Amino acid sequence: MTKNKIIVGLSGGVDSSVAAMLLKEKGYEVEALFMKNWNNQTEDGKCLWEDDVEDAIQVCDKLNIEINTIDLSEDYWEKVFKNFLTEYKNGRTPNPDILCNKEIKFKAFLEYAESLGAEKIATGHYACKNMNGDSIQLLKSIDNNKDQSYFLCCLNQNQLNKTLFPIGDLHKQDVRKLAKKAKLITHDKKDSTGVCFIGEQPFRDFLSSFIKPERGLIKTVDGESIGEHGGIFFYTLGQRQGLGIGGIKNATDAPWYVVRKNIDDNELIVAQDHDHPLLHSKNLTVLDINWISEKIPILPFKCKSKCRYRQSDQNCVIERNKNGHFVVKFELSQRAITPGQYIVFYKKNVCLGGGIIDSVY
């Protein structure tokens, strides 16, 4: 007997391809949905998604499943990309992938899939789920190197309840082996990188086409002007590459690092020290924390967290300050905590949720 309908978000990559295949093998009624979220063209007039949709169609032909397409580019622009630009204009460094998951992949896509009669959706994310009493937990994937729970920190109970992660208990190498054995065209396809749904772009040129860069001074921590930057939003804290400074009088040949961004004065502050004190802090404030359980823990609350995707879990305590804002205090000093990025909280392998880093002190 055929099980209920599942619609898989098929990106044209190997992970979502194998997710669809595994669900079909389990007897589900499986359909695919390809989302067009970015319609800008390359220099040769080709849309960035065209190769991906061709691969997705071939996978569906191989698996004998129906493929649907939907253009969500307007939703993506309004709910993700406008925020992305605003954050950069304000000198912050956003993480559009997390917002994209929240607003597009697990909201607009979910709503459309339900309109097509789907009971649930599925994606190729490396993550797992677990029932804990009446609450659904988001768990890390067993493949620590590919775990994507960080990017799913803004999901809620309803979204998790209606989502399956078929490859969450597999390692990437095993996913590729399954795809190769099934002769899926995506088995050796390179993993996508860059901004969610936009892909790899020459970052400065891409951003400059939306935000007019304004040149400003590069100064040392002592206030000495040693160069010019091409737009303060091009740079992030801790950055070493692309500063274009060197041969400074009375300075060594050691590399320079961005240690502060003075947004009001349009100044980039640099130092020749990878571990300069201005790059280190033990406290931050966080906005808009999403608790996946939809229950705020009793504060102060000890847990682990990470301020960037590839960071190892760090011991911390979550508190509220006198203004009612959430404050995170780390056991060890953290380097280059970046406003605009997300801090994501964990208890062992359970992702508790996350929020936007607002300030560091």
Chain-wise SSE layout:
Blueprint: E1 5-9, H1 14-25, E2 29-36, H2 50-63, E3 66-71, H3 73-89, H4 96-115, E4 120-122, E5 127-132, E6 135-140, H5 157-161, E7 163-164, H6 172-181, H7 203-208, E8 216-220, E9 225-229, E10 257-262, E11 267-271, E12 280-291, E13 301-306, E14 314-320, E15 326-335, E16 342-347, E17 350-360
Parallel strand pairs: 1-2, 1-4, 2-3, 4-7, 8-11
Antiparallel strand pairs: 5-6, 6-17, 8-9, 10-11, 12-15, 12-17, 13-14, 13-16, 14-15, 16-17
Helix pairs in contact: 1-2, 1-6, 3-4
Distance between the amino and carboxyl termini: 59 Å
Q: What is the gyration radius calculated from CA atoms?
A: 22 Å
Q: Briefly note the CATH topology name of the largest domain.
A: Rossmann fold
Summarize the amount of helix as a percent range.
Answer: 10-25%
Shape assignment: globular
The secondary structure category is alpha/beta
What's the helix-strand series?
EHEHEHHEEEHEHHEEEEEEEEEE
Sheet having the most strands: 6 strands, antiparallel, barrel
* CATH top level label of the largest domain: Alpha Beta
Give the spatial strand order of the biggest sheet: 12-15-14-13-16-17
Domain count = 3
Strand content: 25-35%
Oligomer: single chain
Stretches with pLDDT under 50, minimum 5 residues: none
Query: Quick one: CATH superfamily of the largest domain?
Result: HUPs
